[in-house]
Amino acid sequence: MVMSSHLRDSRRRRPAGQVRGDAALGVLCILATLACAAGLIATYYFFVRTTTGQYIDESALVEAVAIHGPAGKAATRFLDWLPTVSLVVGAVVVLFVTVIRKRWRAAGIAVGACVGANIATQVLKALLPDRPFRGVETLELNSLPSGHTTLAASAAAAVFLMASPRWRPFAGFAGGSFAIISGVSTVVNQWHRPADVIAAFLLVGAFVIPAGWLIIRTGNAWNVWDGFGGHWASSRWWLRLPGLICLVFAAAAAFLLTRYVPGEGGSGTSYFWGGISLIVVAGYLAAVATTALFAFAARRRAADSPATSGTRR
Fold this sequence. Notes:
The chain has one domain. It is mostly helical. The two termini are 41 Å apart. Strands 1-2 form a two-stranded parallel sheet. It is built from ten helices and two strands; from the N terminus they run ααααααααβααβ. Helix 4 runs antiparallel to helix 5 and helix 5 packs antiparallel against helix 8. The longest helix has 33 residues.
């Protein structure tokens, strides 16, 4: 009787740092992954298979010529360095955290998700059919998703997954900003259309979320924190700031993309800036949603638990 009572008590007690709401977290991760997949399909269908979507996407690409001067040169230099910067920064952070914090399994999962997203991008670009003619003069060759954007976003995501919970809000904002700048540069340089960049964000999300769930499940001991505000890197402003930016750029996109009727001309650079606004909204919305999801997943540190004092990293 004493032993059975002890077993029941031990099952009720959850050790500090254990993932809370396992079932709820699993459901949320499944829904978020399905949302990324659905968003990717919807992005492809609207911007590639419909006349309106093709017109918006192609107009943004054509209008990029108007600002290609100094901005284009800067974008070209940035894109030339992007693969190296992404791989070096991602590798250094992942290696540092892996060796210092002994997070070998998490490193394997994060790198696997990063590699998987980049392979999937190349497979999709090869398998998706060419753009159908819908009355819009455009290159027929499929360019969705953007490989450069996938590389940048997946490298940032690997750093985010390896970071301790208190560092993830800042890592999410910084990584999202890096991915957005990378995506915008491909449009400025006329390498990709806005939809290619948005599709890359969604594709990376479809790999990162399941990988994050595995890391939370297998890295129970270190996925614990004091909640928002316990450290400068865990300030709620790392969610509020991109959230406010999303609202501003969403309003800008709605205004710019409905200002002119397709085919009547006179838009200047409205479609370009509208496309850039959509990239910013998609990038920061993904960063905020992912950060919020994994903030929920990480368990709060028990105030009266000395056993967790060594997990503050």
